[in-house]
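Try this one yourself first.
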């Protein structure tokens, strides 16, 4: 036999029955997005590397060490598997002038790629749901986006997720704060780790959200951006807070929550759980009013978030929330090949009428005994068995047998008019 090939480390197959949980989640998302009037956007999985260098930021973990980049062998272009989708959405918005007639509310779902150390909740291919609002400067859309994420978690039945937020103000406010921050860190050189020393002059804000316990006490005492916010920025933040309050969403301010990129402004936020260990951030986002310009577009305010769907599913499992297990309405039992034309025609009609039916498929030895077929029917979880036996067919009928009512009640139904009794099969 030939050598066996395996999936790339950190990239997972999603198999049945687990894939049904994904579909369940994706259906919930689509339904919710429709009610908030957000429209789907799909952009390519591969983008020019420069999009992320500029749009995600040279000094981020993603660009410094996590990107899958390669050269197109045919024309030498530098390409990257998208590590996140915000830059792609903004690129598309600029390219197609999406905001020419006003703001747009968009969402996406799909795979992202980051070369990280695989562990629970951290993979090299993972799925993100994201929502972005383009072209609206006001705090009401920041609040709306947070309400959207909050409502999704509520409708999924998830509990104990806290909302942390902060404001990064505007560039001038950040510059004043940055100077104070660098001075503070310079006084604490002895505590800074190698990463922090490197970031001191490139991206000092990022030192604030260090995951190194030895630095956290020092970081906690650093000057807070909140103290540098002017009146307009404070008002923006206060409005977001007031709108969340009005809608009954509890939040807290985390002054060390930063996104650390120059194009971020005003609101930043995260939805966090304590039940997934170190990978507890389910959703992170913020306002990125500067990004359009960085990517060559006209100044356009924008705000959005990204959510890791593996983490959401993991938390659903952790909290024991049921996620509808699919079973067909009916399983068709076919004694032999002669029954196939009538059986398959009937099943087509039933499916067209909204019934889900799984047909027994034969093996090399034929279709197997009735007993073994009933066993399969039972195992499929179906509520009914449809028996296309010779007796039945001779009478122009099919036997419908209840598999889950405890007594196996059965009835004959006419083959000529499946649409008339299809509804009785539906669970
Ligand atoms: P972290 O601090 O956990 O690395 P991040 O700041 O890199 O997160 P974002 O870029 O904000 O994450 O992505 C948004 C969300 O996507 C995260 O909150 C998380 O739920 C999810 N996510 C990020 N990286 C991964 C990954 N490698 N595997 C699975 N989910 C991920
Ligand atoms: Mg990361």
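Now uncover the answer:
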């Amino acid at each position: 036999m030939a050598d066996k090939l395996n999936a790339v480390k950190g990239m997972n197959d999603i198999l049945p029955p687990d894939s049904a949980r994904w579909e369940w989640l994706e259906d919930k998302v689509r339904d919710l997005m429709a009610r908030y009037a957000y429209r789907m956007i799909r952009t390519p999985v591969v983008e020019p590397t420069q999009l992320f260098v500029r749009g995600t930021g040279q000094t981020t973990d993603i660009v410094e060490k996590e990107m899958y980049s390669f050269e197109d062998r045919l024309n030498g272009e530098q390409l990257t598997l998208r590590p996140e989708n915000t830059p792609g959405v903004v690129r598309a918005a600029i390219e197609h002038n999406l905001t020419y007639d006003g703001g747009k509310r968009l969402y996406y779902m799909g795979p992202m790629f980051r070369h990280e150390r695989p562990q629970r909740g951290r993979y090299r291919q993972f799925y993100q749901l994201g929502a972005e609002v383009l072209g609206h400067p006001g705090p009401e859309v920041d609040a709306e986006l947070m309400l959207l994420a909050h409502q999704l978690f509520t409708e999924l039945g998830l509990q104990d997720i806290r909302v942390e937020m902060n404001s990064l103000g505007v560039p001038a406010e950040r510059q004043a704060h940055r100077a104070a921050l660098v001075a503070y860190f310079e006084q604490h050189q002895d505590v800074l780790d190698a990463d922090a020393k490197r970031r001191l002059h490139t991206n000092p804000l990022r030192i604030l959200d260090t995951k190194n316990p030895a630095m956290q006490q020092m970081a906690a005492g650093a000057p807070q951006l909140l103290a540098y916010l002017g009146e307009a920025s404070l008002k923006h933040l206060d409005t977001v807070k007031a709108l969340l309050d009005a809608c009954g969403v509890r939040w807290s301010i985390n002054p060390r929550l930063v996104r650390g990129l120059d194009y971020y402004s005003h609101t930043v936020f995260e939805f966090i759980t304590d039940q997934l260990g170190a990978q507890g951030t389910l959703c992170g986002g913020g306002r990125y009013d500067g990004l359009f310009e960085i990517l060559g577009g006209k100044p356009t305010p924008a705000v959005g978030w990204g959510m890791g769907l593996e983490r959401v599913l993991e938390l659903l499992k952790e909290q024991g929330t049921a996620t509808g297990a699919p079973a067909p309405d009916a399983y068709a039992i076919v004694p032999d090949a002669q029954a196939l034309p009538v059986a398959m025609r009937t099943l087509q009609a039933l499916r067209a009428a909204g019934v889900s039916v799984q047909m027994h498929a034969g093996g090399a030895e034929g279709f197997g005994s009735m007993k073994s077929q009933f066993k399969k029917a039972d195992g499929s979880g179906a509520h009914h068995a449809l028996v296309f036996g010779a007796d039945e067919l001779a009478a122009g009928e099919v036997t419908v047998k209840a598999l889950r009512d405890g007594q196996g009640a059965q009835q004959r139904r006419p083959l000529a008019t499946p649409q008339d009794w299809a509804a009785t099969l539906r669970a």
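Discussion: Residues 249 and 369 are 59 Å apart (CA to CA). The chain has two domains: 18-169+229-318, 330-424.
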